[in-house]
Design goal:
The complex is a heterodimer of chains A (306) and B (731). With 306 residues, chain A is of the alpha/beta class. Chain A contains 14 helices and twelve strands. Chain A has helices spanning 2-16, 35-42, 45-48, 64-69, 80-88, 132-141, 157-160, 174-180, 207-212, 214-233, 235-248, 255-268, 283-292, 301-304; strands at 20-25, 51-56, 75-78, 93-98, 105-109, 124-127, 150-152, 166-170, 187-190, 202-206, 270-271, 276-277. Chain A has a five-stranded mixed β-sheet. In chain A, strands 7-6-8-5-9 form a five-stranded mixed β-sheet, with no helix packed on it. In chain A, strands 11-12 form a two-stranded antiparallel ribbon. In chain B, 40% of the residues lie in helices and 26% in strands. In chain B, the strands form five sheets. In chain B, strands 1, 2, 3, 4, 5, 6 and 7 form a seven-stranded antiparallel β-sheet that branches. The longest helix of chain B is centred in the N-terminal third of the chain and has 69 residues, at 2-70. Chain B is rod-shaped, with a radius of gyration of 63 Å. Classes of the chains: A alpha/beta (306), B alpha+beta (731). The A-B interface holds A 61-62, 123, 128, 150-153, 155-158, 160-164, 179-182, 250, 252-257, 259 and B 139-141, 143-146, 149-150, 152-154, 158, 160-161, 164, 217-220, 229, 231-238, 240-241, 248, 251-252, 255.
């Protein structure tokens, strides 16, 4: 491992003078969810493409989109829902890479839910950073009273303490935390089982940036893809890199959590139709999302996906 | 020999020590298990008490926080929104309770309209001073934070999950303030540092090598000897990663608020260590304390004691072994001396046996030049030497034979037997009758009999020419008399006198019998009839008689052989308990060399057959005319006597006349009938000096018989009258 790091450092130093700086912002704190980016960075895949990539993590109150909008980042990671919503608001951003091919969003509940409308009966928690307008659109779609939705910061304590009856969770993070706290959830409802198949984890750049720096974006995407492929085949080593990154960033976690998260993230990246990692947003997933958000015809696939 | 002795002593010692070791191991194992159980129970009780004590300390601190907040919550009347006034209250909290790091109040959105959506005031302890901070904006949206949201929704007090603030572990207590309509309008609370708790828990070490930790309501390590686990790992994350089901079970019991203990395999640096986990909850926060103690540490004091005992025991065993070898050698020396003495005694006994056996005649046939005596004897002592005896000799045409059984066994009996045998030989050889011999022996033995021993004896004197047998029995078993080649045999009815040696002046009686050729006598000691088998059943006189009767011929050796075989079969594996002596004698003076028989009935006309019979006999044996007419006269008288008187009138009976001659020098006539018992020899002899008119009727016939024959003897045997007459011919 040390040898690899030294080699990478040397390569990075050798090509530093002529490399192009890229600021990439994830949409959460350091964890296995972003393993491929760390691999590409640490193993010199970005450097090999002539890129000097800075990986930024927003805190719980910050937004990756704001970072893109403010020009603080060149490339950001966003959920497709958020990206489409922002595009519909007129912000010209384009999808350059789609990591997740299946949705990892779930509702975990203390009580049994027969349909989405049952959510109106209980205290339901959604992350605070979810855009209110987007939440309204989603709630309207499933006839849920958005005003009753409780916004919480993060974690699973509101749910475990019983303050929330139902809480939104990802299969790769909060769901793992539940098990870590010795809790065995009884009722789990996947969003995609209820028709909400809107993929998460895409990479977005402004349309303007893309037009001017297409080769750079392509290099970034290529190196990132290489990073994820390495992560898939070197999971133990990948976990070493992730845990070190988290420790350096003073983020609390443990290897068990990150191991389960990495496994789940890699599983979600496999396209169920193609049965492989495509790293691209398919037209059907794009159209499906537009249909859910009632945005059909507002913009075209080829304008949005590059 | 020395090597063998050493080896034997070592082996004996080793066996004893191994036995001692086994017993010690069993006892010690029981003791150890009982003590181990008690030790563990004591540790469990002591550790749980310590944890309870710790829990009380922590709970006390936490209660002080709750009291600090709850006691003044009434001051935040819903109308109180004055920042300065609030800050005074918050400040006072920190002044009154130095345990608090900060105190705060966070109002619900837009509760204080002048402050906008967010209004939160905080008093923070900072390097000994108290600072006031106002918080809340779009980026610091405190309404979504656990410490606000959870008590707000639940409308009850809430201890947050521990969290890091810098390097310090912190925890926040929140108390919702509720207005008159039951709506929460603010959260009032305080934060504390957990570092002091942590140090108390981390120092908790009830036993050497044990360690303690505390987990949060959700299972996160709040304290642990491995700092990297604190607020990073949960008991479950470690349990699932290590696939340690025991740890998961312990975690579940702890977060469920249980108090107790469990034994489990604790993995320490890749090594499984049998350990105990003791846990006790802190009810106010849902946290739980746990102490882990390796079992070997709990048992270390016991194990140390065990080591001392084992060492002491090993020492004792070595000393014991040396002592055992020493004692064994000494005992073996004594045994060796004893064995030598025993061997010497055995050797001497063998010699004594040879001497004793040499006293009695053992060469058979004893009189090879005589054809009229068939004799065989057998003696087998129960021990090396015995008290049985037999003896015989011929003196002046008379065969003396005796059998005896001395009271007791072994050496004393054998010495007594030697004396008895010598006396018999010395006295009998002087030609005394059996009763006289017995009497003299009795006098001699009784005089110096200080040991009060006695001997049963049977002494016989047989005139080999005439078959006259004189016997004297001194308390001995009655002999079996065998007639005519054992076809008929029975116990001799004879008076028992006192055994020899009991009464010096006792007068012994003798009896007289007559043996005809082919008759025999079987003498024996009680060792024969009282031979016991394993069921303690006696051989018995009845069986003895049957064996004799079964013997097909009058052969002394074969009779004894048949008896011994039968005894052996009866006794089986049982040990011989008494001396066995058997003496068998057959009187065979020319038996079977000449034999002629006449069978007639008690009819007068049959008497004529007698004349023909005598004629043929005379011719066969070359008897002269004179002798022939004499024999004819005597036999006719005897036969007529039987024809006339033996059977009741009108009944037909058989009369048997058997004549034998072994050497053609003498004839023996046996006239037998099954009629009324009658001894003609008892009839008074006729006075031939008187005239025929003066003489009483009868008696003349027997007179003639006696006159003509050399000897006339009567006996009644097996339901038959037998008149035995002998006549020498060719003189």
């Amino acid at each position: 491992m040390k040898k690899i790091l030294v080699v990478c450092l040397l390569i990075a130093c050798a090509i530093y003078s002529r490399s192009q700086k890229i600021v990439f912002t994830t949409h959460w704190l350091p964890q296995s969810q972003f393993a491929g980016f760390y691999a590409a960075s640490v193993l010199g895949f970005y450097a090999h493409e002539g890129l000097d990539v800075v990986i930024n993590h927003p805190n719980a109150n910050e937004s990756a989109f704001v970072s893109l909008k403010d020009g603080k980042s060149n490339i950001v990671m966003l959920y497709l829902s958020e990206a489409l919503f922002m595009r519909s608001k007129g912000f010209r951003l384009v999808n350059v890479m789609q990591l997740s091919q299946q949705s990892g969003l779930t509702f975990v509940s203390h009580r049994k839910l027969n349909s989405m409308t049952d959510l109106n009966k209980y205290r339901v928690g959604i992350w605070n950073y979810v855009n209110l307008e987007l939440l309204d659109i989603i709630c309207r779609r499933w006839k849920v009273d958005a005003k009753k939705i409780i916004r919480f910061n993060s974690g699973i304590n509101p749910f475990l303490s019983g303050a929330l009856d139902v809480q939104i969770m990802t299969t790769y993070n909060e769901f793992v935390s539940l098990r870590e706290c010795g809790f065995q959830p009884k009722y789990i409802y996947r969003f995609q089982d209820w028709g909400y198949k809107v993929l998460e984890e895409g990479l977005y750049v402004t349309e303007n940036f893309y037009k001017k720096n297409k080769p750079v974006v392509d290099k970034f995407v290529r190196a990132t893809r290489r990073g994820w492929e390495w992560a898939n085949t070197h999971r133990d080593k990948m976990l070493d890199i992730v845990t070190k990154r988290m420790k350096d960033s003073h983020v609390a976690s443990n290897r068990y959590h990150q191991s389960r998260q990495l496994d789940e993230i890699l599983r979600l990246q496999v396209n169920p139709v193609a049965r492989k990692r495509t790293f691209a947003l398919s037209q059907s997933d794009f159209e499906n999302a537009l249909s859910i958000f009632q945005m059909k015809g507002k913009f075209q696939y080829h304008d949005f996906v590059k | 020999m020395r090597k063998i002795k050493g080896f034997f002593a070592a082996r004996l010692s080793l066996f004893t020590i191994v036995s001692a070791l086994v017993i010690f191991s069993i006892l010690f194992s029981v003791f150890y298990n009982i003590t181990k159980k008690q030790n563990i129970e004591t540790t469990i009780s002591a550790t749980l008490s310590l944890l309870d004590n710790m829990q009380l300390q922590i709970d006390g601190r936490l209660s002080s926080v709750q009291v600090s907040v709850n006691n003044v919550s009434w001051m935040f009347d819903e109308t109180v929104t004055d920042s300065q006034k609030i800050n005074r209250i918050l400040r006072q909290r920190l002044v009154n309770n130095t345990f608090l790091e900060s105190s705060f109040i966070a109002f619900a959105p837009h509760y204080v309209s002048s402050q906008g959506k967010y209004f939160m005031l905080t008093a923070i302890r900072d390097k000994g001073l108290i600072k006031f901070v106002t918080r809340g904006d779009e980026l610091d949206d405190y309404f979504t934070r656990d410490w606000y949201l959870i008590p707000f929704l639940l409308k009850k007090d809430y201890w947050s999950e521990p969290y890091f603030e810098g390097n310090e572990r912190m925890c926040t207590y929140s108390h919702p303030l509720v207005d008159k309509k039951g709506r929460v309008y603010a959260i009032f609370g305080a934060s504390i540092s957990l570092e002091k708790f942590a140090s108390i828990v981390e120092k908790l070490q009830p036993i050497k090598d044990s360690y303690s930790f505390m987990i949060s309501r959700n299972g996160y390590y709040m304290t642990h000897r491995r700092r990297d686990r604190i607020l990073n790992e949960t008991v479950f994350s470690l349990g699932y990663e290590a696939k340690d089901t025991a740890m998961i079970s312990i975690g579940k019991a702890m977060i469920a608020g249980h108090r107790g203990y469990v034994k489990f395999n604790n993995e320490v640096d890749g090594v499984n260590v049998e350990s105990y986990a003791f846990y006790s909850p802190i009810p106010s926060t849902g946290w739980s304390l746990c102490t882990v103690c390796p079992e070997k540490v709990i048992l270390s004091s016991l194990n140390r004691t065990l080591q001392y005992i084992m060492m002491l025991f090993a020492l004792c065993i070595i000393i014991f072994f040396i002592a055992m070898v020493f004692v064994s050698r000494k005992l073996l020396n004594e045994l060796k001396v004893s064995t030598s003495a025993n061997e010497r005694i055995n050797s001497e006994l063998h010699i004594a046996q040879s001497i004793q056996m040499g006293m009695i005649p053992k060469i058979f046939p004893p009189f090879p030049d005589r054809s009229d005596v068939d004799l065989y004897a057998f003696l087998r002592p129960a021990k090396e030497v015995g008290g049985d005896l037999y003896d015989f000799f011929i003196s002046e045409g008379k065969l003396y034979f005796a059998i005896g059984d001395v009271s007791g066994k072994g050496v004393p009996a054998s010495l007594f037997m030697a004396v008895t045998r010598s006396l018999f030989r010395n006295i009998a050889s002087q030609g005394f009758s059996p009763s006289k011999v017995m009497q003299m022996m009795n006098s001699s033995i009784s005089e110096n009999n200080e040991s009060n021993m006695f001997v049963t004896m049977f002494i016989s004197q047989l005139d080999l020419d005439t078959g006259r047998l004189v016997v004297c029995n001194a308390g001995h078993n009655p002999p079996i008399i065998v007639h005519k080649g054992s076809q008929q045999a029975g116990y001799m009815k004879i008076k028992k006198n006192l055994p020899v040696g009991l009464m010096p002046d006792f007068l012994y009686h003798e009896e007289e019998h007559c043996l005809i050729p082919g008759d025999g006598l079987l003498l024996y000691t009680d060792g024969v009839t009282e031979a016991e088998n394993e069921k303690k059943e006696l051989f018995g006189e009845k069986v003895l008689l049957e064996v004799v009767r079964r013997s097909s011929s009058c052969d002394a050796f074969h009779i004894i052989e048949a008896i011994l075989n039968e005894i052996e079969r009866h006794v089986g594996q049982a040990r011989q308990s008494d001396d066995i002596t058997i003496f068998s004698f057959c009187y065979v003076p020319g038996f079977d060399s000449y034999k002629k028989q006449l069978l007639i009935e008690n009819r007068c006309e049959d008497i004529e057959k007698l004349t023909t019979f005598v004629d043929e006999l005379a011719e066969d044996c070359c008897i002269d005319m004179k002798m022939q007419s004499q024999l004819n006269l005597a036999l006719e008288e005897a036969v007529v006597n039987v024809v006339n008187y033996a059977y009741p009138k009108g009944t037909i009976g058989e009369i048997d006349l058997l004549v034998t001659s072994p050497d053609k020098e003498s004839l023996t006539f046996v006239l037998s009938d099954s009629g009324v018992p009658f001894d003609p020899t008892k009839v008074p002899e006729a006075d031939v000096t008187k005239s025929a008119e003066d003489r009483p009727i009868g008696g003349l016939g027997i007179f003639l018989v006696r006159k003509i024959m050399d000897s006339v003897i009567y006996r009644y045997s097996n339901g038959k009258n037998e008149l035995i007459m002998k006549k020498r011919i060719n003189k």
